[in-house]
Amino acid sequence: MTAHMQISETDLSAALDRDGYAILPGLLGPEECRDLVALYDERDPFRSRVVMARHGFGEGEYKYLAYPLPGVVEKLRRSLYPRLAPVANNWAEQLRFEPNFPSTLDAYLARCHAAGQRRPTPLILKYGPGDYNCLHQDLYGELVFPLQATVLLSRPGEDFAGGEFLLVEQRPRRQSKGEVVPLAQGDAVIFPVNHRPVAGARGFYRVTMRHGVSRLRSGRRFTLGVIFHDAA
Known about the structure:
The chain has helices spanning 9-19, 30-39, 52-55, 71-94, 105-114, and strands at 22-24, 46-51, 58-59, 61-65, 123-127, 132-136, 147-152, 160-162, 165-170, 177-181, 188-192, 195-200, 203-213, 216-219, 221-227.
């Protein structure tokens, strides 16, 4: 894994608090991206395949990886979690929840597995011309780690056109706010799974976050999704 985490933990936390997302540029190198794209056509690394149109999720498809995860995905998941756990605990405090996310991924996954959430959730998504992903949240059980990552594996403008990553913030008693997050190949975006705190006049309040992908105009687009809680 290239893992050029060129953003400090302070800047990472500040970006998430300010914008609702943070970009980690060049987290994976071009060869690592190509290897993960090539993996998609294999059977053994995956536990299941989902065709989005069958479930009303959009157009396109994705596959959930099986344990043991490919080395680069495992390393990425393990290296990101301890950087995000302090943010998750801070957000919990701001929203007046008990901060209870342990400092290591192993400890958190042990908690998931004890609660019956034992299926791995990292996935690879594949889009072709006309495909898109409806706004959604990746919730797989009672235990939810509040942050996740998406890594763009394809080259915008070369491998595909369109297919922008979308974030929508649903604010209480106000109109929703949407944002397009620009990514290059190998870039990761860190963003909320379901909620995030926002500072208001009377303290912090909770906003609901959803993410999706706009319609692909041409080419093929692959992404890696890294979710830290396992599925029931």
